[in-house]
Design a protein that fits this description.
mainly alpha, 2 helices
Amino acid sequence: MNLNTVIAFDKNPVQFKVLPGVREKLKTVPDWQERLRKYVDELIQDVDI
């Protein structure tokens, strides 16, 4: 993502439960939040709401 790009995220976060230890491992992944956002976008791209 370009540092000059401004993105307005939803003020209500998406939350979900994970298995023990996942949270700690996830935090060690570089740029994990942006990578997870991209994955979620791919996951829902074909869903009609």
